[in-house]
Design goal:
The chain is of the alpha+beta class and 300 residues long. The protein has 3 domains: 59 residues, no CATH class; 39 residues, Double Stranded RNA Binding Domain; 185 residues, no CATH class. It is 54% helix and 14% strand. The protein has 9 helices and 10 strands. Strand 1 and strand 2 form a beta hairpin. Helix 6 runs antiparallel to helix 7, helix 6 runs parallel beside helix 8 and helix 7 runs antiparallel to helix 8. The longest helix has 53 residues. The radius of gyration is 31 Å and the shape is elongated. The two termini are 55 Å apart.
Length: 300
Amino acid sequence: MAASDPFCLVCEQSHVVKPAVIWCNICEGLCEECSVVHRFIKDCSSPLHTTISVDNRKKLPTFIAEIKQICDDHSEPYVLYCSIHNEPCCSQCSSTKHSTCSGFRSLEVMTKNAADSASLTDVENGIDRLSKNCEIVRSNRETALTKYQDEVNSLKSSLKTLHDNMIKVFDQMEKDIIVKVDKIGKPYTEEMENITSVLTNLNLRLEDMRNGLTTMKLFGSSYQIFAGTGKLRTELDKEERILEALLIDGKVLRQKDITFKFEFASLPAVVKKAVNFETEETNCTLQLLRNQSIQIKLSW
């Protein structure tokens, strides 16, 4: 049965093919008539039998829609949660696979307030925090690159003035220095562009996570929100490590400054010796948002 156009599983038992309009997290696809009966079945009155329209289910992110609430081994709904293995289990699993475990908790109780849980809020805040940190670093790098390019342009302007005063002497000097600037600037520029590209891609993934979280809160079942929160937490931790790994390299936030010095008294015999071309890298300071909205001053 295709996930995009499910059929009523109850009607299929009678060899009748009818499109499903309602989706139960336990019973799966139901047509309009069967969904009415479903509401009055005692065993289906549990919050675990959360229902949504098929159209709304299609809006759920794939990783949420694929979360199962039926045990693959025993074809029974998950009713318990094993704190030892951090996984849901059915009533049979608790006496077989988890026979030596203790501290079982009711899955219905655990997931009852999943949409309002502190863990979900933490993931939501974490996405916002990491997104803001990406923007802080990206803005810093763009500013650094603009400053570098402005300095290069200023250097070119100075060289043009010298060229006007001493055409024959400075023609070759201009070419030599520009070549040197470009040689230094090319890897620096490429590095900045690569960093901003990584941050842009990271921001896109965070936006996908934010959209998935929003849709999950609107249409996901309690268990899906509970399990999806864990998946989002794992994915968020991975993305945070990507940014932190990027910033561990001390060279990532280095600043390349250019100065140009000229001594007129040495003209024209030693003009090349009188021109001093220098580059310097300086540290910059960023204010990144940390966990629990604590701001820590970081320097590289």
